[in-house]
């Protein structure tokens, strides 16, 4: 493995670590319902950009790590991340050719699927109730997708991540 390849992988794993830290970062109670899924958005970008390298296994590992750090039931987010990233990897060539508005809508659908899977699993395990606040992160994720995509793409091109 050359030094360029190793540094590219380190950049990707560093961005995933930053996404994990953003997931764990404390925020005011008024902002909590609108907190976007930082880690999932970053995983979606890397699985669209480099699906042969960052795919379902990466999503499963990061989801398990997030479950452990959040103290949630082990496997809820890892299963949801894996299913969502599977959908992205399955259609990555189509997603790349879509316009930015179409991509944003599809990212919103994928984020909605993620939140519904997490809700369904939590309902089965804890009998949690559905609330309208469940889908606010979908809206904030759709709004932030443009900037996350732009930032990670610049990083990928500048450091020649392959």
Automatic annotation (TrEMBL):
<keyword id="KW-0997">Cell inner membrane</keyword>
<feature type="transmembrane region" description="Helical">
    <location>
        <begin position="74"/>
        <end position="92"/>
    </location>
</feature>
<dbReference type="InterPro" id="IPR007227">
    <property type="entry name" value="Cell_shape_determining_MreD"/>
</dbReference>
<comment type="function">
    <text>Involved in formation of the rod shape of the cell. May also contribute to regulation of formation of penicillin-binding proteins.</text>
</comment>
<dbReference type="InterPro" id="IPR026034">
    <property type="entry name" value="MreD_proteobac"/>
</dbReference>
<feature type="transmembrane region" description="Helical">
    <location>
        <begin position="104"/>
        <end position="122"/>
    </location>
</feature>
<keyword id="KW-1133">Transmembrane helix</keyword>
<comment type="similarity">
    <text>Belongs to the MreD family.</text>
</comment>
<dbReference type="Pfam" id="PF04093">
    <property type="entry name" value="MreD"/>
</dbReference>
<keyword id="KW-1003">Cell membrane</keyword>
<feature type="transmembrane region" description="Helical">
    <location>
        <begin position="134"/>
        <end position="152"/>
    </location>
</feature>
<keyword id="KW-0812">Transmembrane</keyword>
<protein>
    <recommendedName>
        <fullName>Rod shape-determining protein MreD</fullName>
    </recommendedName>
</protein>
<feature type="transmembrane region" description="Helical">
    <location>
        <begin position="6"/>
        <end position="25"/>
    </location>
</feature>
<keyword id="KW-0133">Cell shape</keyword>
<keyword id="KW-0472">Membrane</keyword>
